[in-house]
Amino acid sequence: MALPNRVSAVLTEEDLGTALSGMGTTRGKLPFLIELKKEERRKLVRIDESAQPWTARFDVAEMRKDVELWSQMIKIDQALTSLKQLVEDTVAAVAVDAYSAALVVYHLGRDNEVGVEGLEDLMDEFGKRFAHKSSKSAESAQTPQK
How many domains, the chain? Predict the structure, then answer.
């Protein structure tokens, strides 16, 4: 039975460079971005999109610029949030794919007592990892419940 492989892709160094460069270009187009300290962030008044029409009633040039920039930044934030979620989900899926494949190799080698040339270190590391988990499970099973 084949293992499920959620992501099967190759990211060339060129495409990686282009993606990172694109993020740099985006950052360069937004030179006014600031970084708030945790304490500053906590003290900010919480405002969401529903307040936007109310703030637009005032006919002050700087406020108009702020309201327009706010609207634009919301769009950028939504696009980045969506992209970040896709990246995080892909990282998680690829990690599981790689780990699952490594487990198959480990179990085949262990169960068949086959030394796979070049993978001895991997086999030892997996063995230590599972021995550690097994001893923790055994300890918790012996600990009386309160």
Answer: 1
Q: pLDDT, tens digit, for every residue of 72-108? A: 999 999 999 999 999 999 999 999 998 888 788 777 7
Res. 45 pLDDT band, cuts 50 70 90: confident
Does residue 19 lie within any of the structural domains? Answer: no
| C-alpha torsion 51→56→62→67, nearest 10 | 50
Question: Is residue 20 situated within a structural domain?
Answer: no
Query: pTM for this structure?
Result: 0.62
First to last CA, the chain: 43
Q: In this structure, what are the phi and psi dihedrals at residue 22, rounded to the nearest 5 degrees?
A: -60, -40
**Residue at 74 is within a domain:** yes
Residue 129 within a domain: yes
Farthest-apart Cα atoms in the chain, separation: 79
d(CA 18, CA 133): 41
Buried b (16+ CB within 10 A) or exposed e, 93-104: eeeebeeeeeee
Q: Which domain holds residue 113?
A: 37-141
